[in-house]
Amino acid sequence: MSTSTTTAEPAVSAGTILRDVDWETYCQHRDEPANDHLRMSYLDGTLILMSPEFVHEEGGESLGLLIRGVTSGLGLEVKGIRMTTLRRGTARVKGGGKEPDNAFYFGENERRMRRMKTLDLAVDPPPDLAIEVDNKADSEIALPIYARLGVPEVWRYDVRGHALWFGRLAGDAYREVDRSVCLPRLTPTLVLQALKAFEESDMGENAWYEWLKEWARGLPEAPAR
Predict the structure, then answer these.
(1) What's the CA gap between 22 and 19, in Å, rounded?
(2) Distance (Å) of CA 20 to CA 2, 48, 64, 144
(3) Could you report how far apart the first and last alpha carbons of the chain are, in Å?
(4) Which among 97, 146, 104, 92 has a CA at the least distance from the CA of 120?
(5) CB proximity list for 24: less than 8 A, separation 6 or greater
(6) According to DSSP H, which parts of the chain are helical?
(7) Which of 39, 87, 120, 127 is deepest in the core (most CB within 10 A)?
(8) Are 66 and 212 within 8 A, CB to CB?
(9) Is the whole-model pTM more than 0.70?
(10) Distance between CA atoms of 126 and 135, rounded to whole angstroms?
C-alpha cells in the first residue's frame, strides 16, 4: 500500500506493518469494499494489516457466545457489535482505528445503542468491552489504540496458550484486573474453565449456550469493592 494519499488498492500480506500512513489514507483503504477481508489497526500513522485464521476467529466466536450465554442467564441485556470498525481521528496522522475480535455494550450504553444502525465515536460511546484474540500476533500492541478510543475494558485471549487477561482503562493505559468490570461475576479463571468445559465435551454451540446460562446462575456474587 502506498503511504501517500492515493486510493490505489493495496497488495498486502497478513501481518503487514506500514508506517507514515496519514489518517485520510487509512480511512480510504478501510472504507474500500475490496479490503473487507482485512483487519486494520491504526494509531498515529502506523497501520497494521491482518487476515485472521480459522482458529483465531473460533476463539473470538467462543468468547462472544460465552458473553451472550452469561448475560442471558443473569437476565442482563447486551448489544454485540462484533468486528465493527472503531475509529476516531483528529489530525493528519493523529488518530486511532481498530476492528475488535468481538465487542459489546452493557447497561446504559446498551440502551443508548440498542436501535442504532451506525457508530460514530465522535458522538457515540465506545463499546464497554472489546475482545482481542492472540493466535500468531501479540494483541498488547492493540491496547494503546483501545485506550485512545476510550474502551473501558479489554480482554486478551491467547487461543493457543489458553491464557486470558482482563484489563481496565486507567488514564491512558490498561491495568490488569482479577475480574471483569462489565460482568463482575466473571474472572479469567472462570471464563477459561467454561471454555475448557466446551472444548472437552461433545456439546455443540447451542447446547453450550444453554449450559452457560445455567452455569452463570450458579456463579457467586462479586465481592464488594
Answers:
(1) 9
(2) 10, 12, 34, 17
(3) 49
(4) 97
(5) 5, 92
(6) 23-30, 54-73, 107-113, 143-149, 188-199, 205-217
(7) 127
(8) yes
(9) yes
(10) 25
